[in-house]
Structures are given as C-alpha cells and as structure tokens.
Amino acid sequence: MEMEIDFSKVKGQETAKKILESAILFERYPPLYLFVGPRGVGKATMAVEFAKAANCVSNDVRPCGRCSQCHKIERFVHPDVHFLLPDKPEGLRQKLGQGGGVRPPDFDPSREISIRQVREIQYELSRPPVEARHRFVIILNGENLTIESQNALLKTLEEPPSNTTFIMVSDNPDLILPTIRSRARTVKFHYLGFNDFVDFFKSSTVSPAVLYRLSNGSVGEAKELINWGIISLRNQVLEILIKKDLDLLTAFIGELYVEKPLVSKFIAFYGVLFRDILLAKLGMSNLITNIDMKGRITEAANALHWKVIEDVFEALKKAERALKRNVNIQFILYSVFKPIFRYEEIVVV
Ligand SMILES: [Zn+2]
Which of 22, 62, 150, 299 has its CA 20 to 30 A from that of 46? Predict the structure, then answer.
C-alpha cells in the first residue's frame, strides 16, 4: 500500500502541502525552508506537522499522531525537534502549544532572538541526533533574529549538519538577510478561503463571516479578536458614538489603556467601524464589514454629521502616525473620538 501524507491539521494551503508532501515521500529535505505568508494561517503548525511526518514510523499514514515520534513532537518534548524563540519572556519553550496554536500564549512577535540562543542551538547541532531520522530547528519567527544572530546562523547554513533542516517561519521575510533567503527553499502560505476559515470558528459566539472580514482570513488574528472581547468592544464604541457620552468614553479608555500593540489594533478596528458608518450613511449598508451590527451602525450613521465622519478619518491618519512616535497612548485614543464631541451644536441631517 502506498504511504499517505496527512497534513489535514493545516487548513487550505494546497500548494505548500504539495511541496512538503513530496519532500516526505522522497525523503529529500533541504537544509533550510522559509515558510512565508501572513500571520495566523498555519505556518508554524505546518512546521510541526512536517517534522512529525518526517519522523513518524507509521507505514500507511504520516504523521499518524499515534507513534512515539509523533507524540513527542506534538507535545514539544522531542529531543531533536528544537524551537528557536525569543528569550523573553522567560520559559517560553516550556509553554509551547499552550495557547491553542504552536506559539506560547505570552509570545511577543516583536521580541528579538538573540545570538546567545543561536549559539545554544549550534552547540546542540554539533552533537548527533538522539533518536530522530531527521532533525529540525523551527525558528519562530525568522524576522526576529537580530542581524548578528542571522550572520551566526549563516555560518551553520554554509556547512549544514547532516540530517538537519531549519524551518524559518516569517510574515516579514524582507527582514531576513538575502544571503539566508537565497539558501532557502521558500514555501508560500496564503490567507485562508472562507470555507477553510469557518472550520476554526464553528462554536464561536461571533459570526465567522464577521471574523473573516475583520481578520482578512487570518485564523491567528481572528482568535486574538475573540480574546480581546471584540463583541462587547463594538457595542461599547457604538454606544459612545450614538449617545455622544463623554463619561462613557472616559471609562472606556480607562479600561482599554493597556499597551501599544493593542492600541494600534484598536485604531485599525475603529477605522473599519467608521468605514461601515460611512457606508451606512451613503445608503450602502449591505457592504459593511460588521454585518451583524447593521442596526446599531445605521443608528450611529444617523447620529453623526458628515463633517464628524470626515474629521474622524483625518484623526485616524494622524493617530497612525502618532503611534509610530512616542505619543501618549491615551492622548491618541481621545484624539480619534474628539470629532464626535466637537460638532454637538450642528444639527444632524
Ligand atoms: Zn507517527
């Protein structure tokens, strides 16, 4: 019977799967793969599934998910499947897989992978594999390697240890040295189609159609939106816009005031909401993103003057620029709401 490769844990990504399946079937592994594509579409999961398939001992379906090789890899305890992660926060390695995906829950995508960590892996690779047919080093994420770390890694790639493959996962490959990229076998990942996306959110309280539109089809991003309480957030913001209630706004900003990455996400989300309000005001509410909140959005559109909407878009542009500088976060948040209160005296038409 012919052996079958089962990458069904990753949704969609048919082209990537074909490339990786043939590597497994022919047992031909390049020293370096570069998995590139948007965040949250299955690149890291695929890296783990690939390492499983390459080491699985089943004769009919790989990865089988039942043999000891598969088990050790999916529990992140295989001695020959290494992960290169930022060194802060501490102990990330022990928390792999705990966030529902591969990356630990407190994984910060902006943290650097230091040269110390690259050296540790290099020491590991100087010794023979413990039990794997093929050894892996999975780098999360490639763009987080400092230039110094990349140069150190390049030395290893110039004389790659036998039976070892690096998998560099990246949503920003431009930050990876061309000398590294040119050595890599690049495998491209894409945003998921709606049908594949929906599978992840069947039991979600937020409509998958709305999540899909808000996240562009990135499962990782959609999960973040859910954790963030996107539903109550949309209700709160629309309530402020409809009532033009300054106390509500102050309370809301007090709660939201957390950290910069969240604020920048909020600014993006607020932009989507105002695009919807504008569409509703133009009588095109069938095109809005937050389709499940059409009623409230129409109410907000009726409550806000054209000039206010125009000024909010202007304020959003300034806010995006301010986020890149060190402007006070609360000030930025107030600035995008400010136009709502400025034209109180104007009669809404
Ligand atoms: Zn197996």
Answer: 150
Distance CA 33, CA 14 (A): 17
- Could you read off the pLDDT of 222-281 as tens digits, one per residue? 888 888 887 788 899 999 999 999 999 998 888 876 666 678 778 888 999 999 999 999
User: If 0-12 CB within 10 Å is exposed, 13-18 middle and 19+ buried, where does residue 331 land?
Assistant: exposed
Burial 138-175, CB ≥16 within 10 A → b, else e: bbbbbbbbeeebbebbeebbeeebeebbbbbbbbebee
Span from the CA of 271 to the centroid of ligand 1 (angstroms): 46
Number of domains in the chain: 2
Q: How far is the CA of 47 from the centre of ligand 1 (A)?
A: 15
Distance 27 CA to ligand 1 centre (A): 15
pLDDT of residue 37: 95
Q: Which amino acid is at 28?
A: R
How remote is the CA of residue 35 from the centroid of ligand 1, in Å?
23
Query: Which tokens belong to 164?
Result: 């070892």
Q: Tell me how far the alpha carbon of residue 195 lies from the centroid of ligand 1, in angstroms.
A: 28
Last residue of a domain, one of 190, 211, 242: 190
Last residue within a domain, chosen from 161, 190, 219: 190
pLDDT of residue 99: 77
* Cα–ligand 1 centroid distance for 135 (angstroms): 15
Q: How far is the CA of 65 from the centre of ligand 1 (A)?
A: 5
Q: Which residues pair with 262 in a beta bridge?
A: none
Tell how far the Cα of 9 is from the centroid of ligand 1, in angstroms.
14
Does 232 lie in the same domain as 176? Answer: no
The domain of 307 spans 228-342
